[in-house]
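Give me the fold.
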Amino acid sequence: MQVQILEEREWQKVLSSNSCAREVPLHSTKLAGIEMLLINGDIIFGEDDPSKICCTGKPYSIIDQPPKNLRLSIKVPFTEKQDFDIKRLGK
């Protein structure tokens, strides 16, 4: 199985073409309780409608590559290839 990871520059293209994609800062505390969820919701959505459907694409795809190979492509924004430690288990 081959895993495709988009580099940061590729994600910047996705972000610039999709007004719904947003980067959220890492908080210094857990997102626990109504107050923190409201704060995070304001950061993410601002004045936008949170019920608006933003993404219609697939978050992942599995592509058959004969004779015995599969390719798994997963959209994971704001990451770099070196952020992953991918292992294959089984045959």
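Residues 1-7+55-91 form one domain.
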